[in-house]
Specification:
The protein has one domain: Immunoglobulin-like (Sandwich). The chain has 1 helix and 10 strands. A 4-stranded mixed beta sheet has the order 1-9-5-4, with no helix packed on it.
Length: about 160
C-alpha cells in the first residue's frame, strides 16, 4: 500500500511539473517567420544563486583556422507583457568581423562556430522558468552552465 502511495505521489509531481512547463510556455508566442524559438529547461539545483547560464548565439562556417571571428549582433532581453517573464531575442547576427592575419591560401578550411562578439551573455539560473531565445532560423543557439566554488576565499590585503 505504501509503495502504491509513493508511486501515486511521484506520478502527480511529474504531471504537475509537465503542466507547469506547458503553462510557462503560454507566455512565449511562436517564432515569427524567419526566426526559431529555442527553449531550455534547467534542472533544479540546491543553491541556484551559485549558477549562471551563458547564452551563446552564432553560426558554424567553413573558415581558416588562424583568424578570430565574431558577429556584431546582440542579445536583447525583453519582458513578456502581462507575464513578467523574460525572453531573449537576436534579431540579426549582424556583420561578421575578425582579425586579418595572412593565411596560406593552400591551408585547409575548417568548420568553426562563430558567435556574437563582446563578453559572455550571462543570465540568472532559475529552474522554475524556461530560458527562451528567439534567433534567426539559420543561427545556432548554445548554452553553458557556470557555477561558483562552494566556499568563499579571502582576498589578501595589499
Amino acid at each position: 500500500m505504501r509503495r502504491l502511495n509513493l508511486l501515486t505521489v511521484a506520478l502527480m509531481l511529474g504531471t504537475v511539473a509537465m503542466t507547469r512547463a506547458a503553462d510557462n510556455m503560454n507566455a512565449f508566442p511562436p517564432a515569427e517567420e524567419g526566426m526559431t524559438r529555442h527553449v531550455l529547461e534547467l534542472h533544479p539545483q540546491l543553491d541556484e544563486s551559485a549558477y549562471k547560464v551563458e547564452i551563446i548565439v552564432g553560426r558554424t562556417l567553413e573558415l581558416d583556422a588562424a583568424n578570430n571571428y565574431f558577429y556584431s549582433g546582440k542579445i536583447q532581453a525583453e519582458s513578456m507583457p502581462g507575464w513578467g517573464y523574460t525572453r531573449y531575442v537576436v534579431e540579426d547576427l549582424g556583420m561578421m568581423g575578425g582579425t586579418m592575419m595572412a593565411v596560406d591560401p593552400r591551408a585547409p578550411k575548417v568548420d568553426r562556430f562563430i558567435q556574437l562578439g563582446g563578453g559572455p551573455y550571462l543570465i540568472r539560473y532559475n529552474s522554475k522558468l524556461p530560458v527562451v531565445v528567439y534567433a534567426p532560423a539559420d543561427a545556432e543557439v548554445r548554452y553553458r552552465i557556470w557555477s561558483a566554488e562552494p566556499e568563499e576565499l579571502p582576498m589578501e590585503e595589499g
